[in-house]
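Hi U.,

Before I forget, here's the chain from the pilot set. I'm dumping it here mostly so it's searchable later in email.
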Amino acid sequence: MSNRWRVILPPLVPFVVVTVGVEVLVRSGVIPSYVLPAPSAVFESVFRDFRELASATWSTTKASVAGFAASGAIGVLIAVALSSSRWVERAFYPYAVFFQTVPIIAIAPLLVIWFGFDLRTVIASAFIVSVFPVIANTLTGLLSTDPALRDLFRLYGASPAATLWKLRLPSALPSILTGLRIAAGLAVIGAIVGEFISGSGIGGVIDVARTQQRLDKVFAGLLLSSLLGLGLFALVNLASRLALRHWHASEQSR
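Structure:
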């Protein structure tokens, strides 16, 4: 068996088994179609409503990618600032934690007031949901730099900027990428929540389909949003593979 099939088969087999099982249970009447649509009905909805779903998916993709990119850049910068001193970390990190605990669905109406019913609201929602994992994981990585290496840089008179750029950030790169993996999926979730309020994208399609009792279309939207999250996750995995494969054990062991 080739390496490609070794990667594809493990997740493919459960997907096929579950899909076929649900199809049989729905068609036999064990599970009512108004509770769970048959997978064939979901795929039929994807093709029947292709134009609407494709346009909605593109809108959600733009917002998710923009929110994810902003969370990556701003999250790393905030973590660098927090790691600059223990006082700064103790003073401001609790606010980052508090900001994360506020339910996004509760502040989504405020985002509409501040940004309006357009793409900016959805991007802001995606950013708010996805930024904290980047901050937390980057900060952990920066604070976990080998003390012996930090002492060595200090011994040779390296400036704080040089130590950050040449030692602390490279050492924290695996943690940063872990935070980005988590943020990739959360950015899509945040975008969908923002779209429930703004009425655009996949979130808007799901909300309208819900009121129309189009459960097949609801699940079609869920399928596309899941594929979008998987796509972002795969991109981060590819970046991790390219960045770490020559020196970090997490990639060399694959």
